[in-house]
């Protein structure tokens, strides 16, 4: 989407009729993509590989580390909600040029992300405490290595 917006921005500037609001659209998509990606990564439990230590543990030790990790993520989500909401409310006093849209339209992404991250974290806590935190991932198949018989001579042999 951003590439198309940039292309339209360049073309309209070159023909002398620039669409100035395209930069606002691009920045809005970018900001919402970042915060949506954060929520999706939290849902998939692969954000910043916070589970690297827990994956090496078993039993009670793993449960403690998994719960502690998710409580930290939940605390960050609550900060996103609280401080994001404050920024959102303050954003109605500032406006984006040239559309004069309140900057709160950008700040809304922060508490929305916080709500989603909190929801997904609570879901992981409940499911993990009920069913265990171990993830059943399919084993990785070994990489296929092609034979080099046709390329290199056999050991001890010469060409």
Distance between the termini: 56 Å
Radius of gyration: 25 Å
Number of domains: 1
Counting helices, strands and paired strands, the structural category is mainly alpha
Describe the structure using short key phrases.
single chain; two-stranded antiparallel sheet
Topology:
Blueprint: H1 2-14, H2 22-44, H3 59-90, E1 95-96, E2 101-102, H4 104-107, H5 109-131
Antiparallel strand pairs: 1-2
Helix pairs in contact: 1-2, 2-5, 3-5
If you had to describe this structure to a student in words, what would you say it looks like?
This protein has 159 residues and is mostly helical. The chain has one domain. The chain has a two-stranded antiparallel sheet. A hairpin with a 4-residue loop joins strand 1 and strand 2. The model has no long low-confidence stretch (mean pLDDT 83).
Can you give me a brief rundown of this structure?
Helix content is 60%, strand content 3%.
